[in-house]
Amino acid sequence: MKRFVFAIASLFLMGxxxxxxxxxxxxxxxxxxxxxNFNFQPKDYWAVIDTQDNCAVxxxxxxxxxxxGMKIIGKSSSPAGVKQQIKSDQSCKGTVGLSA
Length: 100
What we know:
Layout: H1 2-22, H2 26-33, E1 45-49, E2 54-58, H3 65-68, E3 71-76, H4 79-88, E4 94-96
């Protein structure tokens, strides 16, 4: 009976330790996550009016107006296209982070 309990316990412990050997180490995972050649290229830009009525260009879609308080004016695949939409909008008090 003792051998049976010992056998079950050893199988249980082996089952717990096997996944630890199969998982990559954190150093290996970090080297995959931080590639020196990584360069983020946004696909879309949004022109928004923030809660202070200032206009800005952002590269990620904002949350809905009721949550973020940002009203979307327009969307384009280039920052220049969105800046043009901001210049044509009359409801902006000012601009944030835009060069003329």
